Amino acid sequence: MKKNKFRRKITAIVVCLSIAISSLTILLLYRKAIAAHKEELRQKLVAIVSTGALAIDAQMHSQIPLNREGVETAQYKELRMVLRQIRSANPEIRYVYTMVKAENPNILKFVMDAEPDPKLISYPGDDYDISKFPNMRSAFNAPVAENSLHADKWGTWLSAYGPVRERRGADDKESKAVAIFGIDMSAKKFIAAQAGLRHGALLALIISILLSLAIGTFMANAVTNPIGVLVAATRKVAKGDFSRNVNIHTKDEIEELGSAFNSMMGELKKLYQNLQNSFLSTIYALSEAIEAKDPYTRGHSERVTEYSLEIAQELGLPNEEIIIIKNVALLHDIGKIGISESILDKPGKLSEEEWAMIKNHPIIGEIILRSVEALQPGISIVKYHHEHYDGSGYPDGLKEKEIPFMASIVTVADAFDAMTSARPYRAAMTVEAATEQLKEFSGKQFDPKAVDALLSLLKKKPTNFQRLEASPMNETGAEPL
User: Fold this and answer.
1) Which terminus of the chain is more solvent-facing, meaning fewer CB atoms within 10 Å of its CB: N or C?
2) If 0-12 CB within 10 Å is exposed, 13-18 middle and 19+ buried, where does residue 400 land?
3) DSSP label at residue 121
4) Could you give phi then psi for residue 162, rounded to 5 degrees?
5) Which of 8, 21, 5, 4 is nearest to 209 (CA)?
6) How many angstroms separate the CA atoms of 128 and 149, rounded?
7) Which of 226, 220, 213, 413 is closest to 313 using CA atoms?
8) Handedness of CA 250, 255, 258, 259 (dihedral sign)
9) What is the CA radius of gyration of the chain?
10) Distance between the two ends of the chain, CA-based, in angstroms?
11) Using CA atoms, how far apart are residues 127 and 118, in angstroms rounded to an integer?
């Protein structure tokens, strides 16, 4: 989960920014579309009232009495027919009417109404409160439409008004508005169009969110994939693999970072090689110091290491464990540095006290290597390479799976080389005799798996284990050390 955390953050940031930008853009476009549609409708209504007001005879209109009897006058009836013709020519229009000023500035008086339904007829002289419709008073000066919709018990409307002027002569500027001509258009179509735009905006928003997710994921991958390559390479380096270079082609700072990483790997590889060479030199020096104490075992550590590596590879051990064996098997007897040469070189049988001192060399070796951090993984080889599979070994009397398997491998390799090498107290065994000893003590002194692997190698690669012509073993025999 942690390895995807940065990617999720980048994706979330990109997606959120994309959604925010697209949402704001869609909202602005939606509002602009609504405003444009409303303005287009207002201009259409203004054009209708401008034309309709010209069709009304202002002098005849002024002759209509402002009372209920006014509806019976010839002037009312004639002009009402004009209003109905205007409404018939514009199906979108629901109501048409005329009004004149009253003494109260917030009141206008109805004059004519083209509505045929008696319930909705406004009689001449009826008051109408225009406090909520300020544009109505300004309509005496010029045609105008309301800026917003208004609702009443009959529905929702958008209205426009134009001045009804006296018959004009040559001087248009001197004409006087005696009334206003008003129209109310139902806003159902406008509201439906508004809903359609809203649905379109919502659909566009959903599409933009999906696109934002896709783009965010793509951009996050574009940013994090190269970083992931660097992280993977860094982890390889942490495990000691300095051979990995990264190939990043992003043409930006991340590509420069990849190039810097590759350069750093080159320098680290050189540094690691130098450290490894120094480390191996130290190991070889320690190995030489061990064998200098016991001239009869010269070359023993190298051979034990070679045999142990052969067995480990035959058994398919992981590369990490093979490297540990390679580095530590050379030092499996380093504890003998703390054992007197008189004991190590003694040609006769060791006393119990001397044998007890010999048995201390694995613990002495552990103490010596304890402070060497690079050798920590293999200290068990040094400490336990004399433990026996049946629990009869030393220093802790471990048995079977209690014994680290790498130590069991070195135990078999150590015993095989010891048996096929001449010692002060006995002659060297032949490979055949040593083989029989391994078979005899398999499952007792030695781990059977390690013995079987060595026996298999002796058949497949006999020349790798015949370093010299061994002398016949003395008839009394001896248990391998």
Assistant:
1) N
2) middle
3) P
4) -140, 150
5) 21
6) 18
7) 413
8) positive
9) 53
10) 52
11) 17
Are the beta carbons of 162 and 46 closer than 8 angstroms? yes
Residue showing tokens 């490894």: 276
pLDDT of residue 296: 56
Q: Say how many residues make up the chain.
A: 481
Beta-carbon contacts of residue 431 (< 8 Å; ≥ 6 apart): 420, 458, 462, 465, 466, 470
Contacts of 425 (CB under 8 A, 6+ apart): 346, 347, 348, 349
Please report where in the chains the tokens 């030695």 appear, as a residue. Answer: 446
Cβ(431)–Cβ(391) below 8 Å = no
Q: Which residues contact 21 (CB under 8 A, 6 or more apart)?
A: none
Q: Which residue has the tokens 């034309």?
A: 51
Kindly provide the residue ranges of all beta strands, DSSP E only, lying in 311-359, ordered along the sequence. Answer: none
- Token pair listed for 431: 């490979």
Please, are residues 201 and 34 in contact by the beta-carbon 8 Å criterion? no
Candidates 383, 353, 355; CA nearest to 368 is 383
Amino acid at position 283, single letter: I
Query: CA 234 to CA 375: how far, in whole Å?
Result: 23
Tokens of 317: 């051990």
Largest pairwise CA distance in the chain = 155
Hey, which residues does 99 pair with through a beta bridge? 110, 180
Bridge partners (DSSP) of residue 107 are 129
> Per the omega criterion (within 30 degrees of 0), is the bond before 395 cis?
yes
What is the number of alpha carbons within 13 Å of residue 429 lying toward its C-beta?
Answer: 22
φ and ψ at residue 119, rounded to 5 degrees: -65, -25
Chunked mean pLDDT (size 10), the chain, 481 residues: 61 76 81 84 90 91 91 91 89 89 91 70 86 86 87 80 78 75 85 79 80 74 69 70 68 70 73 69 69 66 91 94 90 84 76 86 87 83 93 93 94 91 76 91 94 92 63 38 45
Find out whether 229 and 249 touch, Cβ atoms under 8 Å.
no
